[in-house]
Design goal:
579 residues, alpha/beta, ABC transporter transmembrane region fold, Rossmann fold, 2 domains, six-stranded mixed β-sheet, 20 helices, 62% helix, elongated, binds adenosine-5'-triphosphate, binds magnesium ion
């Protein structure tokens, strides 16, 4: 099994993360247990006040008992404060690791998966579900031990005063179990429905938000609004029933708790009258009762939170355990890549059913340092060839060799390290232009960046920006024009100094003058490295060593510019159409 296939999520993983914090958890527990221990003698002290100090009219022991109570209370609050402070700083570490793990997994997911899932859905998992798990783990890990301990000790203290108090207090437990039995399954189901509705809603919203220009440009706001409205309604409905269920559980438990209190008062009152119990014991019990019953309440909150967390855990687990990852078993690293690329009878379909073949039985061999251009009508499979070469998708049939070694044996990351690509739609990340160009080679010096910018003919417009290379660009580089973005992407690729340079319609958005300049720079840089150019404008591939013409995913002819131009066929037709 390749290491990245192991990035799943198991209870063990999460437990491991929690366990890594055991030192801090122990410190926290120490203080919380101390705070619980401090208040345990309360019922005994109040019983003593009622049964001993008051009948004897002994003011001094009254003051002494209450004094002890004050002291214990001070210890209780102080240690609680220290414990909570110690933990909250450290607990975040667990969730930082969890988020890192999710992101790591996303980096390995197959493009087939990433193509098919809305970004917003993944975002919902990454942001919402992790914070749900966070609240759950924190509440349960930090809350259960002190809560259980507090009630158990209080009940022991009461039993110590009068054994009869034990059954009166414990009667709530079976009732709680019954309530749990009836309520948990519907709550669980509903939580899942809420989560799915939330993912659908955020998924759609993120899609509309990122395509807002499209929506408004076509005046389709009402369609978008309606669709979003529907999804939002669906989510609200599910949330409503979630709240109703939770509330009714809370209400039922409250009724149970109140009934038990009344019952306990009646029983102990009767026992006081029949002299089976002292007045002090009854007072002690009435004092301890709310604390113990509150534990029941807290438990019901814990269990609701637990169910929420469990659902979020499942949601993340679904992604984390998915085996739909890039299956690159290869470990081989090429010491110095020459840049030979060979396709051997490659057939490829995007769909799993393999109905539509984007590439059909393609065989090509590109020598190191060769400049090869791909041309062909839109949808003929040019970009797909590049995606296959970079290992974004694996061939359905046939194989791809890099420097004579099957791509599947290579470390795909290493291979990509030696490539640079200028894509059809060039995204800029938020940050400065400098950051964006440096993305190609983080260790590059300023001088190297500037050189790449000059070659890409981008200096001319960057100089006009008030902050030059330090200009911030928006999330999608919205402040730059298409042609400007393209030049930044070219600079980014050139800076990388790759063995294989891939240009997919890299100069298509440039005006004639800029295109000529950039083309010159590219031709200059293409020397000594394998270059693959895809272009609709045939004038830009004149200098290519070889041109490959694709149609419907098939290679239909190849040759040099002059050879192809002299031959009847698609190339000649395309050429004629462009003149
Ligand atoms: N991510 C994808 N999922 C499914 N099908 C795809 C995907 N990308 C491309 N295709 C399909 O594969 C075929 C080849 O597409 P490709 O993008 O390689 O064409 P192209 O030659 O680059 O076209 P263009 O010149 O318009 O960029 C097309 O029929 C297209 O519908
Ligand atoms: Mg394309």
């Amino acid at each position: 099994m390749h290491p990245h296939e192991a990035i799943g999520l198991h209870r063990k993983t999460l437990r491991g993360y929690i366990w890594a914090q055991q030192r801090h958890l122990r410190t926290y527990m120490f203080w919380r247990v101390l705070s619980v221990l401090a208040i345990t003698p309360f019922p005994i002290l109040s019983q003593k006040i009622v049964d001993v100090a008051i009948p004897a009219k002994d003011v001094q022991s009254l003051i002494a008992y209450t004094g002890i109570c004050f002291l214990l209370l001070a210890i209780h609050f102080a240690s609680m404060r220290i414990g909570v402070g110690a933990l909250s700083i450290q607990a975040q570490e667990i969730f930082r690791k969890l988020r890192a793990r999710i992101f790591h997994k996303l980096n390995f997911m197959h493009f087939g998966f990433l193509d098919s899932v809305q970004t917003g859905r993944l975002l919902s998992k990454y942001a919402f579900d992790t914070s749900n798990i966070e609240s759950t783990v924190i509440q349960i890990v930090t809350g259960i031990v002190p809560e259980v301990l507090r009630s158990a000790l209080l009940i022991c203290a009461l039993a110590f005063i009068n054994l009869w108090l034990l059954p009166i207090m414990l009667i709530s437990l079976p009732l709680f179990a019954i309530v749990r039995f009836y309520y948990f399954q519907p709550i669980e189901k509903n939580n899942q429905a809420v989560r799915i509705a939330r993912e659908r809603m955020t998924g759609q919203a993120s899609e509309f938000i990122s395509a807002i220009k499209l929506v408004r440009g076509f005046g389709q706001e009402s369609v978008a609004k309606e669709q979003m409205g529907q999804l939002s309604d669906e989510y609200s409905t599910k949330r409503e029933s979630q709240m109703k269920l939770n509330q009714s559980l809370g209400y039922i438990l409250f009724s149970v708790v109140t009934t038990i209190s009344l019952f306990a008062v009646a029983v102990s009152g009767w026992m006081v009258i029949t002299d089976k119990m002292s007045m002090g014991a009854m007072v002690a019990m009435i004092g301890a009762l709310p604390v113990c019953l509150n534990t029941v309440n807290i438990f019901s909150q814990f269990s609701l939170q637990y169910l929420l967390g469990a659902e979020s855990y499942r949601s993340i687990k679904e992604l984390m355990d998915s085996a739909y990852v890039e299956k690159w078993q290869g470990e081989r690293i090429l010491d110095s890549m020459r840049g030979e690329v060979e396709f051997r009878n490659v057939t490829f379909s995007y769909d799993k059913e393999k109905e539509h073949r984007a590439i059909r039985n393609l065989s090509i061999s590109i020598k190191a340092g060769e400049h090869v251009a791909f041309v062909g009508p839109s949808g003929s499979g040019k970009s797909t060839v590049v995606s296959l070469m970079l290992g974004f998708y694996a061939p359905t049939e046939g194989e791809i060799l890099i420097d004579g070694i099957p791509q599947a044996d290579l470390s795909i990351r290493e291979l990509r390290q030696s490539c640079a690509i200028v894509m059809q739609d060039n995204l800029l990340l938020s940050g400065t232009l400098m950051d964006n160009i440096r993305f190609g080679k983080p260790a590059a010096t300023d001088a190297e960046v500037i050189e790449a910018v000059r070659y890409a003919n981008a200096m001319e417009f960057i100089e006009k920006l008030p902050q030059g290379l330090m200009t911030k660009v928006g999330e999608r580089g919205v402040s730059l024009s298409g042609g400007q973005r393209q030049r930044i992407a070219i600079a980014r690729a050139l800076l990388r100094n790759p063995k294989i340079l891939i240009l997919d319609e890299a100069t298509s958005a440039l005006d004639y003058e800029s295109e000529k300049l950039v083309q010159e720079a590219i031709d200059h840089l293409a020397k000594g490295r394998t270059t693959i150019t895809i272009a609709h404008r045939l004038s830009t591939i004149r200098s290519a060593d070889r041109i490959i013409v694709l149609q419907d995913g098939e290679l239909i002819s190849k040759g040099t510019w002059t050879e192809l131009a002299g031959r009847d066929g698609v190339f000649k037709d395309l050429l004629a159409a462009q003149h």
